[in-house]
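Lab channel / #folding
Pinned by the channel admin:
"Please post every new chain as: sequence first, then the structure tokens as a reply. Keep commentary short and put observations after the output so the thread stays searchable."

First post following the new format, from NK:
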Amino acid sequence: MSEKYPRIFLKPGRDASLSRGHPWVFSGAVAGAEGQLEPGDIVAAVTHERKPLALGFYNPTSDIAFRLLTADTTAAIDYTFWQKRIREAMSLREKVLPEGTTAYRLINAEGDWMPGLIVDRYANYLALSVETAGMEKHRENVVKILSEEMQPKGIYERSEGRARQLESLDEHTGIACGERPPEAIEITEDHLHFKVDIISGQKTGFFLDQRTNRKIAERLSDQANVLNCFSYTGAFSVYCARGGARRVISVESSEAANEIARWNLERNGFSSDQHPVVRADVFKYLRETNEVFDLIILDPPAFARAKKDVTKASRGYKDINLQAARALREGGILATFSCSNYIGETLFEKIVLGALRDAGKSARLLQTMGPGPDHPTNLGHPEGHYLTGLLLNVTT
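Reply from TO:
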């Protein structure tokens, strides 16, 4: 084993998950460490018997004390290491992306063996998010490599939110490299056009993880009356309109998002009069509507951002699914999603089943859904599977 990096020692029997491929070691599994280590230092994790396991980022102030970088304990975590990882991520996207697509997830943290690094491409710009203390220390190299390999007009950083707080990091936003992005970038996805605000939009500006699910909704939309709830900037709505929907109603509480949704519809040749965009609270709208729909899409924001939120979030998910089931015609389709890390697929299925029963409905599961292949997840890392979707045929 390379002696370049200090070691952390795991407690007896606490190396099993790392050996099975899980990329995290929690603080309670660490028996001790060599020297005075700082958050973000690279260390070698070893067993109680001093057997080397892996190299990774160490953060003694975080519940997740160790984040796996490589099982090769002789590796050097240097510029060449990051260059190789980034090139591998680029190569994968070239294989899995559809034609006519200029916006996608380029680097997906643990899914690309780069814990705490999120990079999205939007046409000629990159949106960067650094979420771990370890990646923060290598940020300069990462930005330089991205600039050299991707040659974007600019890289805009949005390192903010709960993940950085848990790593004891301050938030940081602004230009990381090149020129500042315009207020609106026009991207294409499967030959459709969308306006994106990567500076102040949700996530990094667009819900890139739903691309394959939008395509599913498009195929189900021919001659359908569609309700798109929590529609944000209307991407699902545009796909459904292209799929031949008679009418798509988009419901979103943010008027700024609604303005972009109308632009997106018009830009792709669809009338926002025929496909109305409504500013409203989705919960209230579903309770009050008397209209019956052939297809309802529920893609809410994360209701559970921490474990303590699970009970309240479960009630929220049950409420909207119950109301949606009541608004579906007999034999209609419900595409329902959760992007809450703490609401796993099994729990989400139970919540939706309970909602259907309370609505006097039953359903056939047509398909489970998740993020597209540009959002790879580590097979040994179930926490990476944050987006859960159920495609249901709802009947009485």
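NK: DSSP finds eleven helices and 20 strands in the chain.
TO: also worth noting, The chain has three domains: 7-70, 79-185, 207-395.
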